[in-house]
Amino acid sequence: MFIYASCSLPLAVLVSVVLKTTKRNLEQTIMLTIFGRKKVTADRVAHIFAHNIVETVESGFSDVAGFINDSPEFVIDPGITEEDYGKFLMIVIAGNYAYINQYFTDGMDKQITEEITQKLAPAFEMTPTEFSMKVKEYKECMSRANHPSKNIIYAMSKGVFLKYNLVDCQEEYFRQMKTPNPIFLKNLDELMKNFLWNWEVFNEKYKVVSGNLS
User: Fold this and answer.
1) How far is residue 199's CA from residue 100's CA, in Å, rounded to a whole number?
2) What is the C-alpha to C-alpha distance for residues 134 and 125, in angstroms, rounded to an integer?
3) Within the chain, what is the greatest distance between any pair of CA atoms?
4) Cα–Cα distance for residue pair 163/184, rounded to 1 Å
5) Residue 84 CB neighbour total at 10 angstroms
6) Phi–psi pair at 38, nearest 5 degrees
7) Cβ atoms within 10 A of the Cβ of 10, count?
8) Dist. CA 23–CA 42, nearest whole Å
9) How many CB atoms lie within 10 A of CB 114?
10) pLDDT in tens, 129-155
């Protein structure tokens, strides 16, 4: 359910969005009001999220690398390869962890992130504790670079700039200032939007619950 074009939304979700002002959508809204949203467990959400976040980055990073390497704001080729997506994946994970807090309360945000951590840690050959510390490291790095702004997209873009050492690829003025070229950063912001999970659409269809469904 990422916005990235290569990861298609379920047909039912697309129909709901496209037909928002139609009679069919109105009837669907009435049905949801009467019967409620479909319930899913935090464990199930974590499984879907973990699978899709890795798949999305693996399939989309070549576009990101190409965008960075071809950006006219750089006077030195960054030389990012398609295989160098590990740091980008951690930036996307850290950004999405922060994003979850905006859509869930009463401890559900913590439960979802803990479940996701359990799913993702083995893929990085880490324990859940080690993986949590790595995510925390990235989140803190992104937060410092983005201070005082709280915008997650901006933080992710600045995380990319720092983790891929792009400062030295810029023209002398920005290189000496040790700051990103604002034109490049603005364009990267637009690209990074594609790697945030669309919780707004998700929450229109589903209600996340603790424990097992009977």
Assistant:
1) 8
2) 12
3) 63
4) 15
5) 13
6) -70, 135
7) 11
8) 32
9) 13
10) 999 999 999 999 999 999 999 999 999
Q: Which residues contact 103 (CB under 8 A, 6 or more apart)?
A: 109, 199, 200, 203
Angle separating helix axes 108-120 and 128-146, nearest 10 degrees: 120
What's the length of the chain? Answer: 214
The pair of structure tokens assigned to 202 is: 């998700």
**Residue 41 CB coordination number (10 Å):** 16
User: Residue 10 — very low, low, confident or very high, per pLDDT cuts 50/70/90?
Assistant: very low
Domain ranges of the chain: 40-197
Q: Which of 88, 61, 51 is nearest to 4 (CA)?
A: 61
Q: CB under 8 Å to 188, separation ≥6 — which residues?
A: 67, 68, 157, 160, 161
Reported pTM:
0.82
The token pair that represents 99 in the structure block: 């994003």
Residue type, 48: I
Q: What is the 3-state secondary structure (H, E, C) of the chain?
A: CECCCCCCCCHHHHHHHHCCCCHHHHHHHHHHHHHCCEEEEHHHHHHHHHHHHHHHHHHHHHHHHHHHHHCCCECCCCCCCCCCCHHHHHHHHHHHHHHHCCCCCCCHHHHHHHHHHHHHHHHHCCCHHHHHHHHHHHHHHHHHHHCCCCCHHHHHHHHHHHHCCHHHHECHHHHHHCCCCHHHHHHHHHHHHHHCECHHHHHHHEEEECCCCC
